[in-house]
Amino acid sequence: MAKVRVQTEDFDVGAEFAALTAGRTDIGGIGCFVGTVRGNAVGPALEALELEQYPGMTLRMLEKIATEAERRWELLGCTVIHRHGRMALGENIVLVLAASAHRAAALEATSFLIDWLKTKAPFWKKEHFSSGATQWVDAKDSDDAAAARWEKAGV
Amino acid sequence: MNAPIQVLYFAWLRERVGRSAEDVALPDGVRTVGALMAWLRKRGDGYAAAFGAENKIRCAVNQEFGGPETPVKPGDEVAFFPPVTGG
Question: In this structure, which topology does domain B5-81 adopt according to CATH?
Answer without folding.
Answer: Ubiquitin-like (UB roll) (3.10.20)
